Amino acid sequence: MRAARIATTGAALKASRKAAGLTQRALAQLSGVSREAVQYWEAKNTVPLKWGAPRSFAKVLELPTLADLIPHNARAGGWGDTQKRDERARIDAWVEAQMVLWREREAQRKARCRVVCGAKTRKGGECRNKSEAGRRRCKFHGGKSTGARTPDGKERIAGAQRRRWAAWRANGLQ
Ligand SMILES: [Zn+2]
Fold first, then answer.
1. Is 70 exceeded by the pLDDT of residue 15?
2. Where is the HTH cro/C1-type domain (predicted)?
């Protein structure tokens, strides 16, 4: 099965791209192709890696081939329906594992991410400070807060919210 060695799947291409932390556009730029080309090949079942855009993807991403995704013993002895299902399952498992890695990395990135606070200031503007890592607000606007912890404190914030909503409803505004 020579062909199996030099091809991969669209799903594996996509998972590899995500695992590398690249957008479709970024991969397209690195590979010297259009974003549509990335989109096209990621939707394909089989992606031959010998030439064209897929060959460039393979260089950028070190794509796994079908031979990597399907261990040799699974390929021996014909290509029956059971075999095909088996291969599919192995490829899906690999793709899923890559996606789990990617999601973990994204979560870590998010936890480090700092944004502009944007809380309303007394002057009526928006706070321009950087938020605490992984939070939406800066240290002056609750970014360090863990929220209410004691039953007393939880009741106080719940009461404040109830009063706020009641006032909002009483105002008859949308
Ligand atoms: Zn702030």
1. yes
2. 13-48
119 burial class (0-12, 13-18, 19+ CB within 10 angstroms)?
middle
How far away, in angstroms, is 126 Cα from ligand 1 center? 8
Considering the domain architecture, whether residues 67 and 19 belong to the same structural domain is answered as: yes
Residue where a domain terminates, one of 63, 93, 110? 110
| Span from the CA of 136 to the centroid of ligand 1 (angstroms) | 9
CATH for 45 = 1.10.260
Q: Cα of 141 to ligand 1 centre, how many Å?
A: 5
C-beta separation of 130 from 116 below 8 A: yes
Looking at residue 67, its pLDDT comes to 87
Quote the pLDDT of residue 86: 85
Average pLDDT over residues 114-131: 93
Q: Which structural domain range is residue 54 located in?
A: 2-110
d(CA 31, CA 40): 14
- Structural domain contains residue 138: no
Dist. CA 82 → ligand 1 center (Å): 59
